[in-house]
Amino acid sequence: MFLRQCWYVIAWDHEIPDDGLFSRTVLGEPIVVFRTRQGLAALEDRCCHRLAPLSAGRKEGDCVRCGYHGLTFDATGRCVAIPGVERIPAAARVRRYPVALRNRWVFVWMGDPDQADPALLPDNFSCDHPQWHHRPGYMHYDVDHRLICDNLLDFSHLSWVHEKTLGGSPQIALARPEIESLPRGIRVTRRVPSVPAPPYYQRFRRFDTPVDRWFIYDFLVPGVLLMHSGGRPSEDPPEDLSRAVRLHSCQALTPETATTTHYFFQQAHHGEQEDTTVAELIFDSLKAAFHEDREMIRAQSRVIAARPDAPMLTLPMDAALVQYRRLVDRLLTREGLSEQTSARLTDPPGG
Amino acid sequence: MFLRQCWYVIAWDHEIPDDGLFSRTVLGEPIVVFRTRQGLAALEDRCCHRLAPLSAGRKEGDCVRCGYHGLTFDATGRCVAIPGVERIPAAARVRRYPVALRNRWVFVWMGDPDQADPALLPDNFSCDHPQWHHRPGYMHYDVDHRLICDNLLDFSHLSWVHEKTLGGSPQIALARPEIESLPRGIRVTRRVPSVPAPPYYQRFRRFDTPVDRWFIYDFLVPGVLLMHSGGRPSEDPPEDLSRAVRLHSCQALTPETATTTHYFFQQAHHGEQEDTTVAELIFDSLKAAFHEDREMIRAQSRVIAARPDAPMLTLPMDAALVQYRRLVDRLLTREGLSEQTSARLTDPPGG
Amino acid sequence: MFLRQCWYVIAWDHEIPDDGLFSRTVLGEPIVVFRTRQGLAALEDRCCHRLAPLSAGRKEGDCVRCGYHGLTFDATGRCVAIPGVERIPAAARVRRYPVALRNRWVFVWMGDPDQADPALLPDNFSCDHPQWHHRPGYMHYDVDHRLICDNLLDFSHLSWVHEKTLGGSPQIALARPEIESLPRGIRVTRRVPSVPAPPYYQRFRRFDTPVDRWFIYDFLVPGVLLMHSGGRPSEDPPEDLSRAVRLHSCQALTPETATTTHYFFQQAHHGEQEDTTVAELIFDSLKAAFHEDREMIRAQSRVIAARPDAPMLTLPMDAALVQYRRLVDRLLTREGLSEQTSARLTDPPGG
Asked: Could you give the ipTM of this predicted complex?
């Protein structure tokens, strides 16, 4: 059961070829994306005739031709040619998905096309900004996307899962974050004063003294994280960011199926000029950490699969993820969908 | 749900060893085939004692001995020895399948043995004929055999799937075939006048001018295609076949399970003497084309599996496959089996 | 459906690291085993918080710390630390399994901990005895453990499956064993007079004349075989064991899941001093034979999976396995579990 009245990231812009077809499954639905003179088009990747994937055919002008029997569809999903057939039946069409390109992310709208609202696109500005520099990342996960949402909604795991990479000290787990409700998400603010700089900070400049770190992020439906983070020497005056590390991360989880997930991510650093070495080091470091997450979450997922009814004990650090799951439930209900993903969650005790 | 009162191809003759056991699953039933002094024998490949496969044992004379506890079965399936047991229970037997060898194809009868009727064997003459030359082929498919039947019942796909191999021009898709009912199949006749010779024709002789091509085949239950095809220069008088390419193809689909299929095939060329180079070239070309089919059909099958209830839109080129599926349904009903494989098919519109 | 009020072998002692975590699944339950100053501890390998496997964390002193959010559990399964949380909820605990180490086998008790009874541990003395020498073995099986029990309860298969390794002559299949009931198992006694020595006997000493062989074993719930076997020249007086080969084998089947099984085994030979060459040769020979078994039983399992309702014909050699399955059923009933594993078994006919 997925939220449908949402924009889902289906690809990085550079993944869509100039003159070919790109295919990816979103919410269990195979979708083919291609470029037309008007921009991007996204269609159901399943010919209405014999159900072959259109992506096994080819792009012809602004159309897609099925590789099985040659049916041709335009960017609206209407069949415009059937070899050997003069009169094209009105039913010969495939579903069209509204598509949007914003800051290098390609989004598809999975709900009613008439309700596709550009105002609901997340502000992933640092994916395409002259003063924010990054490398784009993609990972595939063979787990339910909700387990990855949980992970992103509770950074206390940094102290353990990423002890040797992102994390650093146990103080992160100890710093209880502030949590605020947003109309379509949760805002999490965590400030960690006076801790050792994490190893990868040394890639920006030398840090010999403790730093104050911050992590402030919005986690928005259907699974987008937008985070400002950074750190600066604790000894510097609060208003002085001259020796700070300033980062902005955009991450998007898109369910491929109920049990597999696409993960788009980047972490941009701020600077007048791009330092390609730093951009690559941050990317490598992020990828290493995300592999640590994936290993843990896959292990967790296997344990859950072996006994799906095992109860979870809600703890204070779960406050954000519980709030988020309840928000998703309210939105599912509003869409007329009934699964209550938070049904088994209890209130976290006061920490 | 499969037709049972049919001969199914289980193997090419040369696949059965002279002094060993051959095993293959047909309609979900494991079958062991071996040679006796009287000819071929086919038994249930499952010992009646502890259900070990007999094919994991060995041939002893005209019998099979189970490799687990030594029970021995004769060619009729009767247990003739149980080590350490003097009195063999009457229930100690495995199922026997009527078996027939015709023109190098080994057939098993999957229905009531008393109704096994040699008159129902298909005329696969070119598999073993002094003036028809071929190489025998076998492929395994991990899809429902019906999707492959569909493919063979609509050659309009040649223009797209085999554009660069068998197919050639879009005219094939445009040439609407004649379709006739047969008692146990469909006859499809397609004539394509004045088209460029397909690339592989050049292997017979040089073709610089347009050719008239023909494809005339019977597609018979439970999935056997027998096709005369060929082409000759359009400029030659109709009765002159001296510069013609004449081919005969025998192809048989045998369901291994509901979702996997055995595919036996050859395409023979006519000639007084075998030209081994041509025979090999045709075989290679056919195999390349059949791999193209398999790739497309597997892609189609994956799309269907992801949403089994997606509707198919019937088009004029589907006339033969719709007729065939309805014939199969009538025969299933006659056998007392109820699944209606054509239930979701509508009549094709007039093309 | 498994017996729970039993000790199950989970590991050889040497598999548990001195300062780390060992994980294995028993009866579908993931279990983490580790060493404390008091001995061995076995806990549910599933954190009570977010269900991550504890074995993905680390050992800290006599405790385990979860690698996801840092919860720490002592050897009784009680949570003793939650980073950032002062008051630990009473519900924060994981299941503890009683654990026992006996003669190098590590056992876990899968039933009610209060009923864990050391008197029910099997007498696997030859796993750790100065006059019995062996190499420890482990195999993984992707079949229901009951098929392996069946195999071990009917040695008539030695003549066929192990014809060229352990087995030797068909006389083994012909020698009907004595079968006795034990409170928690079956005793099988088979004497095979005057047969050729099996090939591997030559590794002890030269055998030119026929031998009398014996196989006397207890097969105990939940799947432990303890066997005395051997052979001596038939020409020697009965009381003279000076030229005998004397072996003791301990084998334990532990269901991993309903369809996969752990197999722990050894076959020790008697002697004042260890002859390492002989110990290794016996181990290699045993392993080769057990691979033969596994190949046959996997083939059998695949045939059964393809048609789970195929009936089995009970024969005289099945007497022990039928008795054993009925014993298991009585014990399951006594535990309040209802599956009748012998329901489809009929009485064996008189042999």
From this structure: 0.91
